[in-house]
Write a structure and sequence with these properties.
Helix content is 38%, strand content 20%. By secondary structure, the protein is of the alpha/beta class. A 7-stranded mixed sheet has the order 14-15-16-13-12-18-19, with helices on both faces. Strands 9-8-7-10-11-21 form a 6-stranded mixed sheet, sandwiched between helices. Strands 5-6-22 form a 3-stranded antiparallel sheet, with no helix packed on it. It starts with 10 loop residues before the first strand and ends in a 12-residue tail after the last strand. It catalyses: an aldehyde + NAD(+) + H2O = a carboxylate + NADH + 2 H(+). This is aldehyde dehydrogenase (NAD(+)).
Length: 500
């Protein structure tokens, strides 16, 4: 059983702040056992306002701090995060249900890479503007100014990684931040705030509020908030974006997907099957970019299904701290039940052919984790585009295999969705791979792989999958506003208001 974590309270002005009017609490649980591990005190309206005031007070000094000095503080945080990687990974495993083999090698590592990238970018002149010579006596220059106090709302599937993806460019650019983690996976937030403070981040620059949608709504609608960055499902993102738009706030929205993976006719079957499993069962399928619609040439059907079944044996649920475990439970009982409903829909209403998995309990689990929120890795085949499992975002370990007769047909069907987060192809002919990728309507695409998202690569969705990008140089631009200045050195003012 996971050890009980200390209670969490709103964090602002450099420390946790218990408040008399924060009377509501909720429990966060270990998804592998269903046992509570921490009591979270919901941030009251006054506590949210206090966190925002703390950020407002810190903004003038932090925004005036030279980028190189901001970078030095952030790089000290990078060193602390790396030194404490395993401790933070254990916390993420307890909070999310992901195996330690994953959290210790991916979650903190990739989030810290982003923090290091943006610290280096601003230190190397990434916030420099342009100087334009317009004519002999006139030139113009641009500057990139921080936005002010910003709000960031995280998702439950990659808690600390998403917190770093948002806070790294925000703080590097000179903004201050109020961060709300998901109410399902909030344990990381105070640890990250403490690490930032230990690294030298001034009090009030990074603040944390806790709670559900009502807390997020108050945060995003607050008149002092200049920007909202949100990661989550489409329906919630629409509400957040609408609220922010009413106050003319900047927004970045990273929302859901129903991403296609197209296996081309010349694809090596072993690689195709490996990519398909990676695109569906990593993090127990709880990844917004997952390639859950797998399009396969009809002549390859039998061999592809055989390759999937051969590999599904290597998906290993179990004790999350066993190095051999590579598949965990879902994040909550609520989410497990939702995914199981989709699996039953796939078999009973969609009438898809169940290749493996299903709604039955996972076999062979150790007693210590048998009460967790487990779902079997499930593959539906002979799917059609109108089936719920092939059309709606399940966000669990459920793959839909769809067969096609011509590549143009596969591309057309792949694009027949309101979502456009990610897409990918597997094939030997790289010219054909590039031609197909160019036609796919998605903001993040892969060829012969799936899922890698390095700090240097800007990522963001098309259609209803989002607005704006995160990471890369363009990710920094999302946290600044432009100021243009024109200077006339001629000594005279051109004007129409002269004596005739």
């Amino acid at each position: 059983m996971a050890p009980q974590e200390p209670d969490r309270h709103t964090f602002y002005a450099g420390k946790p702040q218990p408040s008399a009017d924060s009377k509501e609490t909720f429990q966060t649980t270990d998804p592998s056992t269903g046992k509570p591990v921490c009591t979270i005190h919901t941030s009251s309206p006054s506590a949210i306002d206090s966190a925002i005031r703390s950020a407002q007070s810190a903004f003038p000094s932090w925004s005036a701090t030279p980028p190189i000095d901001r970078a030095r503080i952030l790089l000290r945080a990078v060193a602390l995060l790396r030194a404490r990687n395993d401790d933070l990974a254990r916390l993420e495993t307890i909070d999310t249900g992901k195996p330690f083999s994953e959290t210790s090698t991916v979650d903190i590592v990739t989030g810290t890479d982003v923090l290091e990238y943006f610290a280096g970018l601003v230190a190397a002149g990434g916030l420099n503007g342009e100087t334009l010579r317009l004519r002999d006596t006139v030139h113009a220059y641009t500057t990139k100014e921080p936005l002010g106090v910003c709000a960031a709302i995280g998702a439950w599937n990659y808690p600390i990684q998403i917190a770093l993806w948002k806070s790294a460019p925000a703080l590097a650019a000179g903004n201050t931040l109020v961060y709300k983690p998901s109410e399902f996976t909030p344990l990381h937030a105070e640890h990250l705030a403490s690490i930032y403070r230990e690294a030298g981040l001034p009090d009030g620059v990074f603040n944390v509020v806790y709670g559900a949608g009502d807390v997020g709504a108050r945060l995003t609608s607050h008149p002092a908030i200049a920007k909202v960055s949100f990661t989550g499902q489409v329906a919630t993102g629409k509400k957040v974006a609408a609220s922010a738009a009413g106050g003319m706030k900047y927004v970045t929205m990273e929302l859901g997907g129903k991403s296609p993976l197209i296996i081309l006719p010349d694809a090596p079957l072993d690689s195709a099957a490996d990519v398909a499993l990676l695109a569906n069962f990593f993090s127990s399928g709880q990844v917004c970019t997952n390639g859950t619609r797998v399009f396969v040439p009809r002549p390859l059907q039998r061999d592809f299904e055989r390759a999937l079944l051969d590999r599904i044996r290597h998906v290993r649920p179990g004790d999350l701290f066993d190095p051999a475990t590579n598949f965990g439970p879902l994040s909550s009982a609520l989410h497990r039940d939702k995914v199981l409903r989709y699996i039953r829909t796939g078999t009973e209403l969609d009438r898809a052919r169940l290749l493996c998995g299903g709604p039955e309990p996972v076999d062979g689990l150790p007693d210590s984790v048998r009460d967790g929120y487990w779902v079997r890795p499930t593959i539906f085949t002979d799917c059609t585009d109108d089936m719920a499992v092939a059309r709606e975002e399940v966000f669990g370990p459920v793959m839909s295999v769809l067969y096609y007769d011509a590549v143009d047909e596969a591309v057309r069907r792949a694009n027949a969705t309101d979502l456009g987060l990610a897409a990918g192809v597997v094939g030997r002919d790289l010219d054909q791979c590039h031609r197909v990728i160019a036609q796919l309507q998605a903001g993040i695409t892969w060829v012969n792989t799936w899922g890698e998202s390095p700090a240097e690569m800007a990522v963001g969705g098309w259609k209803l999958s989002g607005v704006g990008v995160e990471n890369g140089r363009r990710g920094l631009e999302a946290w600044v506003r432009n100021k243009s200045t024109l200077i006339d050195m001629s000594g005279s003012v051109p004007t129409v208001f002269t004596k005739l």
